[in-house]
Specification:
The complex is a heterodimer of chains A (309) and B (442).
Chain A (H helix, E strand, L loop, with lengths): L16 E4 L4 E4 L18 E7 L7 H4 L9 H10 L4 E5 L12 H15 L3 E4 L4 H14 L6 E5 L5 H9 L3 E5 L4 H13 L7 E4 L9 H16 L10 E3 L7 H4 L9 H18 L4 E4 L2 H15 L3
Parallel strand pairs in A: 3-4, 3-10, 4-5, 5-6, 6-7, 7-8, 9-10
Antiparallel strand pairs in A: 1-2
Helix pairs in contact in A: 2-3, 3-4, 4-5, 7-9, 9-10
Chain B lengths: L3 H7 L13 H9 L13 H11 L5 E4 L6 E4 L16 E7 L4 H13 L1 E4 L2 E4 L2 E5 L5 H13 L5 E4 L3 H10 L6 E5 L4 H11 L3 E4 L3 H13 L5 E4 L5 H18 L8 E6 L2 H12 L4 E4 L4 H14 L12 E5 L8 E5 L2 H14 L3 E6 L6 H6 L5 H11 L1 H4 L4 E3 L7 H8 L3 E3 L7 H10 L1
Parallel strand pairs in B: 3-6, 3-12, 6-7, 7-8, 8-9, 9-10, 10-11, 11-12, 14-15, 14-16, 16-17
Antiparallel strand pairs in B: 1-2, 4-5, 13-15
Classes of the chains: A alpha/beta (309), B alpha/beta (442).
The complex binds iron/sulfur cluster (SF4).
The site of iron/sulfur cluster has 13 residues of chain B, from helix 2.
Chain lengths: 309, 442
């Protein structure tokens, strides 16, 4: 019987390392395909960020019930994620939306500052989706938090300068978003680096579509990005962030209409867990998650997958 | 697979055309593309034929459990990543029917397995197999249970026992069904191989490590067994990922025959079992046997399998047409969006969330999203009106048309062309439920 052939690949490239928070968290650094100890000696577990929104309108009931009322205060909610052992908090400043409360940039920045202070965790900051408002919010957030390295989301091809400038002003990290396409992901990184942002301050968001809603595309786009990065494409070597919270928006995940589909809370949890596992298998370095049970399971699995045998 | 030049070297090079190709080289190129068969050249030497057959064999054998149309097909994969080429044979899932159950319980257990079936647009997700397991330790009971289960299940079967005599009895009881014999481990391997040969059934081999599994497979192959399924002995997520990746790479990249067979996992039940099954589904597992699988685990898992095994080359588009959401009637709102499937999925999900029935028109924008399509002139009032006309959506409801907020600019012109009131909707899909509620009450 012949011995099993050597199957470890030798790669020319590796993923950049991004320092976050107070310098005690690092994302990225992979030197091979995910979790393969025989070729990826980095052994760094993907980071998991818990999602917090500062305005609950439109947030799914089923998920809200899992936070024991602490979801009513974004800072308390963030602290709960810390208690659950997560590595970061992702706060969506929906209250700044003029169609909602139209909260001021200063109020929103204060929320972020308090979350960073109370949890000591790195914070991913997302706006409300209104570009003009978000530009002002990010500028205020950037100035309000100076002792923790934030990730400011998100730079898009049509609109990346404001958020990039806000990040650069105080040494924060920019999240570069692209719409499910390896070439667009690369283009976004090129735009950001041409704008003057260093490779140690860019994280990519190639859009993680959840299970049943395009996960098949995301899975392969992520894999192709990671393979290209490892084979030496310097414009794709940024760590990847995958947001799996939209698993809770999939009809089959949460539907309560058909008893044959089984318990909806467990089902939605699995929906997000499998989306997150697929993200990790295809190269995610940071996950943003909604369900506390799902995040807990994924953290345990991620830790196990990362450890050497 | 050998290259055209490797084939060419071993052909007679007489260009006699008996193979139906103009030259030996042309034939060699077809061989390398898998479009011709060696049998077509009558002049090739026996020795060359043997060499070529070896190297032209696919890197992984295709193995079937059962017979005919209902057989579960595993393996036959040729790549490591699905963007290289579609993964061909989706992971097969099985749940266990213990022979420790009473006869009535066996029938209801098989009924439960059959109920793990979900109809989704254009596809049916279902459980593929049941695995009758010899927990009783008794050959006669195992055989009776196998026969009982087989009688109420017309899809493929797996028989699980470590005892060759129990296996033999059960195989006799389900003759003609061609179950998977599960299976052989180093201690019972010789007897199990004999049974596999005698009954013409596929055989599962389980080693404690990848190395041991490979050497068992090599031994079985030398003994004349072709249809095998290999269990690498992985019990953790990490072992599952690493061993199965190593096996797939060895088979596909290194032509390592002893691992060129479908891989399987036996996973128990509960959270960890489902996590293992998920990793195995993404990373090269062809068969997963559960002790139990709940509907809330099965639906996401079947969806994952469906996503991983779709063809990644198919463009990201849905068909132009009317998609009723809920049960819309003659006053339900009319909405429209592009045929970029992610836009469609998102809009659809957000409409469903509102619980308000809607007529949704998908407009062919060649897979572009709303703003890109608008900029490219593929999502202008004329295109939208044409799609409306073709589908007759305006006859289905007398409601106003809701225009995606991002293309609010088109609403005036659209109104003019279609002669129906157009209302501007939301910029972001996630605000659709709120807007729809306001629309309905306003
Ligand atoms: S039949 Fe064989 S020898 Fe004749 S042309 Fe074809 S490949 Fe060449």
């Amino acid at each position: 019987m012949n011995d099993i052939p050597q199957v470890a690949e030798k790669y020319k490239g590796e993923i950049a390392e991004i320092v976050l928070g107070k310098g005690d968290y690092v994302a990225g650094g992979a030197k091979g395909m995910p979790f393969l100890s025989f070729e990826n000696p980095s052994k760094r577990r993907p980071m998991i960020a818990g999602e917090v929104v500062d305005d609950l309108e439109g947030y799914p009931e089923m998920a809200a019930r899992m936070f024991d009322g602490r979801q009513n205060d974004p800072v308390e909610w963030a602290v709960m994620w810390k208690e659950l052992g997560m590595d970061a908090v992702c706060v969506r400043l929906l209250s700044t939306d003029p169609a909602r409360r139209g909260a001021s940039p200063e109020d929103a920045a204060e929320t972020v500052r308090r979350i960073a202070d109370r949890t000591g965790l790195p914070v991913i900051v997302c706006g409300c989706g209104d570009r003009a408002v978000d530009g002002r919010t990010m500028a205020a957030v950037s100035g309000a938090v100076k002792d923790s390295r934030l990730i400011l989301a998100k730079a898009e091809e049509e609109d990346y300068k404001t958020v990039s400038a806000a990040a650069m002003a105080n040494g924060h990290v920019v999240l570069g978003f692209s719409n499910l396409d390896i070439n667009l992901a690369k283009q976004m990184n090129i735009l950001l680096s041409d704008f003057g942002i260093d490779g140690d301050s860019i994280i990519m968001d190639p859009l993680m579509a959840p299970l049943g809603m395009g996960l098949d595309y995301s899975y392969s786009v992520n894999e192709r990005i990671r393979l290209a990065a490892l084979s030496g494409d310097g414009m794709l070597q940024q760590p990847m962030l995958c947001d799996t919270t939209s698993a809770w928006d999939v009809g089959d995940a949460t539907s309560q209409d058909d008893p044959a589909l089984g318990d909806p809370v467990h089902r939605a949890t699995w929906w997000e867990v499998m989306s997150a596992l697929a993200a990790m298998m295809s190269g995610a370095d940071i996950l943003v998650m909604r369900g506390p049970a799902a995040a807990d399971m994924v953290k345990v699995y991620a830790a196990e997958l990362t450890e050497a045998d | 697979m050998a290259t055209a030049m490797e084939f060419f070297k071993l052909l007679p090079k007489t260009n006699c055309k008996d193979c139906g190709h103009p030259t030996c080289l042309a034939f060699a190129m077809q061989l390398a593309n898998g479009k011709a068969s060696l049998e077509d050249c009558p002049h090739i030497s026996e020795e060359s034929r043997k060499t070529l057959n070896e190297s032209s064999a696919p890197p992984m054998r295709t193995v079937r459990i059962g017979t005919g149309d209902r057989a579960a097909v595993m393996g036959g994969e040729t790549v490591l990543y699905r963007h290289e080429r579609r993964f061909v044979n989706p992971t097969v899932y099985a749940v266990t029917v213990s022979d420790g159950l009473s006869d009535e319980e066996i029938v209801s257990r098989v009924g439960y397995a059959a109920s793990l079936r979900f109809e989704r647009v254009g596809t049916v997700f279902r459980l593929d197999c049941i695995s009758v397991r010899n927990d009783s330790g008794d050959a006669e009971r195992f055989s009776a249970a196998a026969s009982m289960a087989a009688g109420s299940w017309d899809s493929p079967l797996i028989l699980e026992s470590e005892s060759p005599s129990a296996m033999s009895a059960a195989l006799d009881a389900v003759k003609g069904r061609r179950p998977l014999i599960c299976g052989a481990y180093p201690g019972n391997m010789d007897r199990m191989m004999e049974l596999a040969k005698e009954h013409g059934c596929p055989l599962a081999l389980r080693g404690g490590t990848l190395e041991e599994t490979a050497s068992m497979a090599a031994r079985a192959k030398a003994a004349g067994i072709e249809d095998m399924v290999l269990d690498t002995g992985a019990v953790t997520l990490k072992q599952c990922l690493e061993r199965q990746t190593a096996a797939r790479r060895a088979a596909v990249r290194k032509k390592f025959r002893a691992l060129g067979y479908p891989l399987m996992n036996r996973v128990g039940s509960g959270e960890y079992a489902v996590a293992l099954a998920s990793v195995s589904t993404m990373k090269y597992g062809s068969l997963v046997i559960f002790d139990d699988l709940k509907p809330y685990e099965a639906l996401p898992l079947f969806t994952l399998r469906n996503n991983i095994y779709t063809d990644p080359q198919v463009p990201i588009q849905v068909k132009q047409g009317v998609y009723p959401i809920g049960s819309p009637d003659s006053h339900s709102p009319i909405m429209f969006t592009t045929n970029f499937s992610l836009t469609y999925f998102t809009v659809r999900a957000d409409i469903e969330k509102s619980k308000i029935p809607v007529w949704l028109q998908v407009v062919n924008t060649e897979g572009l999203s709303v703003l890109t399509a608008y900029a490219a002139g593929k999502f202008d009032p004329e295109h939208v009106a044409e799609a409306f006309r073709e589908s007759g959506i305006l006859d289905k409801s007398d409601s106003a048309v809701i225009v995606p907020g991002l293309v609010a600019r088109m609403s005036g012109k659209l109104e003019e062309i279609i002669g129906r009131r157009a209302v501007v909707g939301t910029n972001e899909s996630k605000n659709i439920p709120k807007h729809l509620r306001e629309f309905m009450s306003g």
